[in-house]
């Protein structure tokens, strides 16, 4: 019975992570909220769990954006020999994704442990959810005209720095990058695509850094089924959540996520004050 409950709990955690990963409300922040107020603990290795659910979200992104990824890679490499406008645009898009990855990669390698130790608190999550909400509210009515071909190195660096800030729990990675992109006058479709294609290298990098922790996970064999269920739950939830969020972005309804953050953030802090 204990093993069955553990498997169900990990399935629910995977679904929860997958649901909140693509949308701009911070999946890491919401997992902290669930663990604190619902008493939900992650048995086994947290690094293994994080790798599995994030890898599942990555696979969902790869599936949804597979056509864009194939085109970018093919045209990007083709630009080395055939220098037309389409190939140049996709080559530069790939280059900007690489540039935008650098800030979070550097900050993550140097300071991720310190960030987790100092800022992984409920009060921090409550406050940073409000910050996320403010960012979403400020760009809620923006309708930029800039498309893929008008991106620049400056855009990439600003979006990359926004992704680095999102290493703080409660700051949504998708929210921060989309806010930064739209604040630069980039249209919703390009901002969304750049944000989630940017998730690919940062997720792969995190996976590489977590390999040693997983190899040394003493609970790997006994936690195999719960881990698998968490992975599958995150994969399915991430896929449908991202597809839904793409529709929300197309309709320009980011204000609802801002309102959600404005409500949940203060409630989290208030609940913590009451309980302490």
From TrEMBL:
GO terms for molecular function: undecaprenyl-diphosphatase activity. GO terms for cellular component: plasma membrane. It is a multi-pass membrane protein. The keyword Cell wall biogenesis/degradation applies. Pfam families: BacA. It is an enzyme of class 3 (hydrolase). InterPro entries: UppP. Keywords: Antibiotic resistance, Cell membrane, Cell shape, Cell wall biogenesis/degradation, Hydrolase, Membrane, Peptidoglycan synthesis, Transmembrane, Transmembrane helix. It comes from the Bacteria. The chain crosses the membrane at residues 44-65, 91-112, 118-139, 191-212, 224-245, 257-275. Bacitracin is thought to be involved in the inhibition of peptidoglycan synthesis by sequestering undecaprenyl diphosphate, thereby reducing the pool of lipid carrier available. This is Undecaprenyl-diphosphatase. It comes from Planococcus koreensis. The gene is uppP.
């Amino acid at each position: 019975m204990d093993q069955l409950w553990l498997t169900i709990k990990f399935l629910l955690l995977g679904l929860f992570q997958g649901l909140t990963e693509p949308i701009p409300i911070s999946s890491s922040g919401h997992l902290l909220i669930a663990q604190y107020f619902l008493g939900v603990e992650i048995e086994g290795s947290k690094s293994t769990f994080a790798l599995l659910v994030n890898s599942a979200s990555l696979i969902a992104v790869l599936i949804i954006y597979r056509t864009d990824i194939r085109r970018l890679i093919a045209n990007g490499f083709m630009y080395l020999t055939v220098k037309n406008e389409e190939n140049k645009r996709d080559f530069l898009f790939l280059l900007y994704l690489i540039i935008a990855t650098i800030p979070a990669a550097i900050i993550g390698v140097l300071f991720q442990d310190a960030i987790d130790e100092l800022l992984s608190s409920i009060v921090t999550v409550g406050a940073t959810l409000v910050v996320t909400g403010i960012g979403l509210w400020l760009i809620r009515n923006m309708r930029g005209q800039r498309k893929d071909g008008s991106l620049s190195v400056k855009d990439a660096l600003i979006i990359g720095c926004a992704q680095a800030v999102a290493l703080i729990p409660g700051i949504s990675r998708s929210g921060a990058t989309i806010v930064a992109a739209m604040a630069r006058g980039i249209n919703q479709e390009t901002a969304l695509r750049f944000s989630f294609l940017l998730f690919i290298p940062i997720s792969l990098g995190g996976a590489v850094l977590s390999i040693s922790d997983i190899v040394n996970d003493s609970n790997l064999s006994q936690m195999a089924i719960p881990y698998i269920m968490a992975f599958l739950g995150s994969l399915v939830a991430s896929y449908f959540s991202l597809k839904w969020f793409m529709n929300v972005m197309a309709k320009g309804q980011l204000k609802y996520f801002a309102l959600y953050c404005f409500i949940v953030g203060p409630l989290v802090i208030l609940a913590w004050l009451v309980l302490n």
